Amino acid sequence: MLLVAAVVTSSLAVATPARAAAPSLELPFVCGTSWEGNSGDSNAHRNKEIDFNMVGTSGNGDKGKPVLAAAAGTVRWEGGENSDYGNYVEIDHGDGYSTLYAHLDQKSVGVGDTVHQGELIGTVGNTDGNTSGLSAHLHFEFRNRGSGQSYPDYIRAASFHGDPFDYATGKETFVSQNCGTQAPPTMPGVSSVSRADGSIDVFAATSDYRLKHRNFSAGKWSCWATLPGNAKIKGDPAAVVSDNGSRIDVFAQGIDNRLKKLTWIAGQQWYDWADLGTYTITSSPAVTMRYDTGFDVFARNAANKIVYRHFSIASGWVN
């Protein structure tokens, strides 16, 4: 007897791993400002890099303009003025995607910092470790390091607010829609001062132990900026204005329970955090101006007593 076996074949559907979604990028500049991107005029460009300049400026006319995070993420890489990119930061957005911001004049964030979309990360500059006389601009790259490709192949075409950059012509002008809240992480404590009529400076100690700052003047709010220094702080900061509005001092309790101070002087950058002694404080500080060139700082110590220090701009700490 001949037996015929019926062979039944079936098609098995093999699931394809989902491709990680790329972040939605916004133009890395202040909401409402116009910037021209250029991808073709630089001999240094090797793939889909974009150089940005503010519309209506030339030379170094846009040097110092704020640079904002195009998407939320964590700073994973940075370099200084002598690197091939000059001052730069690269923000990791997850799933292998990152954005690079190069030739910055100043950096406002460092490795390990978490940033929100629209948060200040630096300013437009012309720093470069290989070239002198470079005109100010922002060099921008949208990268997919998770692709398995090498540089520059992992540089991807960028879109801003859903509008793809015109790589065919190599030029396109955008109006920034980077208009989010630009708020830092949850803020346990906030302090504010006014150094002039119509001006407000707000300071916030965030849940990641950093101090954030933004200013209101000329009818507009600046972006949140992370102030410099490696000190980690907690609780409520306390700020005071002195010397006819030309100086701001911010005091805070460190996570090591020591008193910290950060100072701004008009015409200069913020100074680094100063540690004001080895004694322990168990509360957030309070500060008041005794006269225009001197102020008092109060805090509770380990013995549950209120202690204070007096500062004179002419003489320094008096006690």
From TrEMBL:
SUPFAM superfamilies: Duplicated hybrid motif, Fucose-specific lectin. It comes from the Bacteria. Residues 1-20 form the signal peptide. Residues 195-309 form the PLL-like beta propeller domain. Keywords: Signal. CDD domains: M23_peptidase. GO terms for molecular function: metalloendopeptidase activity. InterPro entries: Cell_wall_metabolism_enzyme, Dup_hybrid_motif, M23ase_b-sheet_dom, PLL-like_beta-prop. Residues 60-147 form the M23ase beta-sheet core domain. This is Peptidase family M23. It comes from Lentzea xinjiangensis.
